[in-house]
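## Example record

The block below lists the input lines for one assembly entry, exactly as stored, with component labels intact.
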Amino acid sequence: MRFDPWDPDFVAHPYRVYDELRREAPVSYFEPTNQWLISRHADVNALLRDRRLGRSHLHVATNEEFGRPAEPEFQEPFWRVIRAGMLDVEPPVHTRLRRLVSKAFTPRMVESLRPRVRAIAAGLVDAFVEKGGGDLLAEVAEPLPVTVIAEMLGIPHADRHLLRPWSAEICGMYELNPSLEAQHTAVRAASEFADYLKTLAAERRRAPGDDLISALAQIDELTEDELVGTCVLLLNAGHEATVNVTGNGWWSLLRNPSELARLREDRSLLPTAVEEVMRWDTPLQMFERWVLEDIEVHGVEIPRGSEVALLFGSANRDPAVFEDPDRLDVGRADNPHISFGAGIHFCLGAPLARIELIESYGALLDRAAKLELREEPSWKPGYIIRGLRSLEVTAAG
Ligand code: HEM
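Predicted structure tokens for the full assembly:
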């Protein structure tokens, strides 16, 4: 097999291909996407922190100057939303946007949410066990982070069902070479989401509540586009990967029954177990960076205007950093995985994600003494955002 992010077999089993890349071609050109694949942990980590690269290049050069086609006009409403969020801008705009919301996501602030997260997790798991199980992804993994981030931002209960489809449709644009249909779907979703948030922000400006949208709507230095872009980012990033870490992670544990038994016997391993499932089956397999100034990696010159694809899933299995990397070890103490990124765009929500994951795994371990796979799950077609279609299990207390 070779690196082929559109091949379902590769998406299901990328790790042997990564081994080969790390060993034989730590930097390799991938023609179908016109990108340089970077597979070793040290290189991925260093390039994420290297200011000669950026998530965007538009602050220094146009697409044409970087030898890329101009964006089709129909995509404008999409990029207007996405490029107004901190993830798709570079300093100084990034610094300003991140500073405005970071107060809400400090470890201390999110720790105060733990009791609420615990209560939501308990309610979901109780209902799940009561009916003998079902799709763990749809019934536990998704509603927990969606509820938490929706409550933080102040999305009314009746509207929450809109978030998941909007997010999934927007994320379709992040896959490699998305189809024209996926592009149009993403544009429509971004426009609808933006209109919805503009209306909600206007209401909250008039009658503020005790929520993040109300707080952001009061900030004069935030333009309306930035407000919308920030909320879309928080709502999407605030659940998409957490859902997949829960689903992928439980499947990892069910495939490694001795590690699941070890965790059941010793709950003090929960924090290391959560980090380990995030490493072992990485929810976000790849992130891209633009090369803003010429760089050289392992003797390969990568000129300004190129794009690198940082293979997080490969970095997380690198034997140069992780002992026995293919082994799932819920007690792994030394675990510098790269799943939350590194550098200036390091995941703002990492402390919140950790609380959600510990509480949801904890609730399932406590309240479902028996948890068994009903059928072999299958992967969704996406490679960058890697998750299961469903996870059907039998659950009993
Ligand atoms: C296990 C779950 C999560 C994973 C694996 C994850 C992963 C990541 C990664 C890898 C990045 C950096 C992307 C890059 O450098 O190109 C990132 C950025 C970000 N994440 Fe998360 N994330 C998770 C949960 C969350 C949650 C719960 C939130 C809640 C708000 C969140 C909000 C953000 C934001 C706002 C950014 C952009 C930060 C910036 O550009 O400065 N994430 N995340």
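The chain has 18 helices and ten strands. Residues 55, 86-87, 98, 149, 233-234, 237-238, 241-242, 245, 283-284, 287, 339-341, 345, 347-349, 352-353 surround protoporphyrin IX containing FE (CB under 6 Å).
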